[in-house]
Amino acid sequence: MGIIEKRAKHKEEFRREILDSAREVFINDGYDGFSMRKLAEKIDYSPTTIYLYFKNKDDLLFAICEEFFANFFAELNHIRSVFRDPVETLRQAFLYLMNFGLKNPNQYKLIFFTKSVYGTREELVEQVSMARNTYFVFKEIVQDCINAGKLRKIEVDVIVDTLSMASHGVIAKNIHCANFSKERSDVAAHTLVDILLRGLQK
Amino acid sequence: MGIIEKRAKHKEEFRREILDSAREVFINDGYDGFSMRKLAEKIDYSPTTIYLYFKNKDDLLFAICEEFFANFFAELNHIRSVFRDPVETLRQAFLYLMNFGLKNPNQYKLIFFTKSVYGTREELVEQVSMARNTYFVFKEIVQDCINAGKLRKIEVDVIVDTLSMASHGVIAKNIHCANFSKERSDVAAHTLVDILLRGLQK
DNA sequence: TAACTATATTAACAGTGTTAATAATAAATA
DNA sequence: TATTTATTATTAACACTGTTAATATAGTTA
Q1: Nearest-CA residue of chain A relative to B155?
Q2: Of A120, A178, A195, the CB nearest to B119
Q3: pLDDT tens digits for A75-110?
Q4: Measured between alpha carbons, how far is A18 from B182 in angstroms, rounded to an integer?
Q5: If you average pLDDT over every residue of chain B, what do you get?
Q6: d(CA A25, CA A27)
Q7: Label partner for A189 (CA 20 to 30 A): which of A18, A74, B14, B56?
Q8: What's phi and psi for B199, nearest 5 deg?
Q9: Which nucleotide is nearest to B10 (CA to C1')?
């Protein structure tokens, strides 16, 4: 494809193409394995062209993260509208995140373990982002359980922290133990969920 | 220091010096931030000299990991000899790992999250290593609780998996949430331990 | 003294993220 | 229509990276 054909593309459309290719490379090769030159070759452009559409490597990652959180946010709202029991809602919300991680460990790692793309907690809460929205709705799901008097007397923020810790741990273990079979991983993960909700409830 | 003085050093002693400096660089700058050239400058040798004492970058990391597991192994045996109640022994064993991670998140990350230095679970169990020894003694601590009839009917390997998941999660969260205050981190972590042991016991 | 071994060095290869300068085309204006 | 301007793409370059090959030097032994 020559330079003339390349110019025919529309800006937004091309940005999407770059982002989709970038996600593939990020997920397949990890944050370190990803390279601007590799992505450039994949989309058949020079490496510097990417810089016209994204500030840098981390800007690409940020865009990918926001897309994930947009989906997660929508799913949490859906779960909330479907389940009536607050504890069951919490369980399903947690399971969704964990199962996403088990099915897409590389993407989970990319979003949660690679870099602190959203800065500090204060910065996350101050700046508008899908990550912020997701954080708030998850917190509300926990608060619903507390309001219904279902949980032991533990600060809502602490519960949110412990649950995200647990989810992170499931995926971290899954990634670290190279030959952790899918079945074994699932068994341990779901056992952990049971233990957690058992230990949390009155 | 000229080439003549450098030659006076003894091999084993020098290997130690390199390893200690390498640990510092690895912990301060992370796995990616570490570079052979950086380490070489620190010890005032050329980068290639390091290759006479260690096979490569990952060989340095392996040596650092083995040192950690040697300490962890010794500590687990000590805890086991001090506490009588098996559940309390398990709690202390778990707390030791978790608190190490909270105090040394970068080193914990280096050992558990960076690379699968010990390969698959099968490879870990087959090859002699301090990591293997540590794995076995931790499993025995859990088995003692089961033998004493203190825990719910859950496979010992599954319990070990869930506990290591939890510990990994605490540290992963601690690292990811940039401005997670030390206090907040400690509260969530210790709450998680309570929830876990509560959910595990009969 | 000559040969050999151990230890250290420099130079090089192929790769990285990113910036600066430049070319070329499309669009807008005189 | 001719000319200027804006947009988009390019190449070249900088300072890094892990690692290997070839080379030089010092110490030990025959």
Answers
A1: A188
A2: A178
A3: 999 999 999 999 999 999 999 999 999 999 999 999
A4: 39
A5: 92
A6: 5
A7: A74
A8: -75, -20
A9: C7
